[in-house]
């Protein structure tokens, strides 16, 4: 089992703890704040409802979370130690040597710093790299890595394995890449409020109703390429380049950062969002971010591509009761309904994932479909045997009842947790020629594979298969 130590468990440390933990790592936290355990517990509750909802396969079983009164205890034996104390250089200069002394020589030591360069952090001879994440760390994939190339390469592999996107910053610079961009927008926004041009709420609308949506899927330069029309980027540059010397920006100036400005921004922000608690806002943000990333998954764009690639590494593992496990998944809150349990439609969605996986297992995979052959579902019968709730882990097994010629008859069992049979879904499929849209015989290798499955499942009972709607129950229900 891999272990991460989180030194400083505030907004960002809590997010790191959740990211590692929900990807199966043990996590040890050191934070002198007496409220740290409560705060991290609340962040974890939110992370548990959000992160698994990005995936169509179950994440690994959660690791173990421990809290330590001593930094050295937390860091001992860790594969990764993440420093996330406040953004004060003198504090980081105290903490990093203590981490280095306690951690093994192989451990990656990462700093969450938003702006300090590795050469500043390591002024006293420590070996930390910058591993700068984005809030919420458990959902957003980006981590900027800056520092020793070999350590960054090792760190990048670890981050990919927990579903993150490492971006190696090739040259150290204050505030790395993304925070330089964010800082530019932040400064301009402060000017707009200070000058009475716009309120905090109006500025947020200008982002979320327009360019914020564009940025999530294509970033800046691809977006501007399209904005150049058929003539492309060169035309865009020619058209908007001169604006750079017009008074479109105040970025060369910084507004006085005094109490008046802080009060102005804070009071507008209270009017805008003060009716919601931070945890309410986090849940709202998380549900929206999950929805956006799930939309991006379809085309593999941006953060959606990262989730898809990570999901490929989450194996649907093994066998259960002599049958192949064809799907695992954690139930997202969005699958539940007004009755407080998983809605009927999603029983079929889960079974459909299992059918797709079984098709891959018999060779009717993406290449086979691209060659013009596939299976079409022609009938389903679902038995709802037990309730399923948000966060439950589903394991689906698939039994082949018949698989000769054009017809493929499957019997899926949906297990909730370890031992509750929550549903069965009986599915009939017909092999189809995609060019004529008519039934056809499967190709030899698919047919042979199916014969093997039929033989190995022959004689296994399939209680409930063949039932029709309204048929009286034959035994206890
Ligand atoms: N908040 C944000 O949006 C982001 C912050 N960061 C960076 O992450 C780091 C942490 O920032 P936040 O989590 O926002 O701050 P925070 O104030 O929420 O959390 C800092 C935590 O460090 C703890 N702490 C203070 N002294 C400590 C010590 N001596 N040993 C161990 N823990 C100690 C505090 O009790 C607190 O829980 C900073 O370097 C910041 O620049 C990075 C990305 C985004
Ligand atoms: C405001 N901030 C500089 C702390 C922001 C970051 O560092 C990254 C983020 O999550 O926006």
From TrEMBL:
3-hydroxyacyl-CoA dehydrogenase NAD binding domain span: 3-171
Top enzyme category: oxidoreductase
Name of this chain's protein: L-carnitine dehydrogenase
Function, as annotated: Catalyzes the NAD(+)-dependent oxidation of L-carnitine to 3-dehydrocarnitine.
Gene3D superfamilies cross-referenced by the UniProt entry: Hotdog Thioesterase, N-(1-d-carboxylethyl)-l-norvaline Dehydrogenase, domain 2, NAD(P)-binding Rossmann-like Domain
Entry annotated with the keyword Protein biosynthesis: no
Example of a GO MF term: carnitine 3-dehydrogenase activity
Location of the protein in the cell: Cytoplasm
EC number: 1.1.1.108
Record family assignment: Belongs to the 3-hydroxyacyl-CoA dehydrogenase family. L-carnitine dehydrogenase subfamily.
Tagged with keyword Chloroplast: no
Organism the protein comes from: Paracoccus angustae
Catalytic activity: carnitine + NAD(+) = 3-dehydrocarnitine + NADH + H(+)
Residues that coordinate or bind NAD(+): 8-13
Superkingdom: Bacteria
Pathway(s) per entry: Amine and polyamine metabolism; carnitine metabolism
Keywords in alphabetical order: Cytoplasm, NAD, Oxidoreductase
Pfam families cross-referenced by the UniProt entry: 3HCDH, 3HCDH_N, 4HBT_2
Xref: InterPro entries: 3-OHacyl-CoA_DH_NAD-bd, 3HC_DH_C, 6-PGluconate_DH-like_C_sf, 6PGD_dom2, HotDog_dom_sf, L-carnitine_dehydrogenase, NAD(P)-bd_dom_sf
CDD domains, per the entry: 4HBT
Subunit relationships: Homodimer.
Residue span, 3-hydroxyacyl-CoA dehydrogenase C-terminal domain: 177-242
